[in-house]
């Protein structure tokens, strides 16, 4: 799982300087969407936080201060947002179709990080997928694959 995520995030990182988190930065958009998904069920677990921190640290190769700055920028952008359009439009400009599908898989991995999946998380990912132009088929397939990657994974129905 981390190999796929690493490749995805490295592609994003290679497109922007590592020490800048300006508006429109796809790294901030990615982190903000992660926060939107993690917060959808009203409970951000330690497992979800750890997974996000690990993803961003390893894939963007950030040190403590840079990592903290990206996490703060993503959290703040996510809290200021009134919808997902700002982030999905930033990412659509930087990602091809395959990378957008892959992004959904990463978001599903975050959903499953705490071992639970809620209707609110499903709804948030459905909206993000729609705005990214990812088909319902690909969205469901990514959800099933993320569930199957979890210990005792269940790739059950929608």
Automatic annotation (TrEMBL):
<feature type="domain" description="Co-chaperone DjlA N-terminal">
    <location>
        <begin position="28"/>
        <end position="143"/>
    </location>
</feature>
<protein>
    <recommendedName>
        <fullName>Co-chaperone DjlA N-terminal domain-containing protein</fullName>
    </recommendedName>
</protein>
<dbReference type="InterPro" id="IPR029024">
    <property type="entry name" value="TerB-like"/>
</dbReference>
<dbReference type="InterPro" id="IPR007791">
    <property type="entry name" value="DjlA_N"/>
</dbReference>
<dbReference type="Pfam" id="PF05099">
    <property type="entry name" value="TerB"/>
</dbReference>
